[in-house]
Amino acid sequence: SKLTSLGQLEMTWRSRCHFHPLLVRVLHKSRLRYYGKPEKKRDMPYQAYFEVADGSGMTSMVLWNSLCPEWYNSLKVGTVLLLEQYAIKASYPFKTQPTPGDSQMKRFATIEISLNVRDPPTKISIIPEEMVKPEWGLPEVKYRFITRSELDGLPNNHSCDVIGLVTFVGRAERARKREHGEDFWLYRWAHAIDGTSDQPFILELFATSQPDVFERIHPMTYLVCTQMRVVRDLTENPSSTIYLTTSNESQIFITGGPKGQPYTKDTKVKNFIQWTKTQSEADQLKKTVIGGYYPFPRPPNNFLKY
């Protein structure tokens, strides 16, 4: 059928109400957001957004309400979609932005694709990867993997992807979202090594919309975390308190998870897998720890400084 592109949509969307089908690849996926309030009677007040791209560039796609429980888990990073009967809206200016793996890609920041159950009822089709044709010109998923030896040189809030062998995982902890609110964030600390440094990656992993993975992080599993943000304490000794925290678009993967992820083609991931083959499992197991209280960043050594 006659397709349109994101570039054409950005130029013509205000003057039309019906759009040709669109073929895109999912490049980023946000966590699922619940926006229900007691006084508003909505059946399924959910929202999730994705960054999708074709040969002309990248834009945001928003999945609304009852489409979320139906489609959220099926729409993975790398999935190719055929979209029909969607709406185009002016983009919401205050949402978080993932850092694209391909810095050259054009971004259409003024529009977003809106997928709803009605007005109009969107039709979503997933195209299996083996049926995707090169002539469609869809971009590949690109990553920004770093090694542990590169981490110390990165600035605060820098976005990156990491892979490592888990040596420590803490218990799940809670932090209040707002000082007097009743909502909590759930998170846990983990350490992962990649053989490029004596120091591990220190990872603050918030429970994203992947509860199954969050529960199954154990020592000796391979852990991949995407769209992580560098946090460094710029006041004291900067190198001692550098860690990585999840962002709204972070995805977490562990060994035994879905095969054929797009990141398996990345050079740094291949190098890490090669390194793990040279390690003795028994030696690494002796160094692993699980559970317990993990105060981080650590308090100062003496009480006066504290």
From TrEMBL:
GO terms for molecular function: single-stranded DNA binding. Coiled coil: none annotated. This is RADX protein. It comes from Brachypteracias leptosomus (short-legged ground-roller). The lineage of its organism: Eukaryota, Metazoa, Chordata, Craniata, Vertebrata.
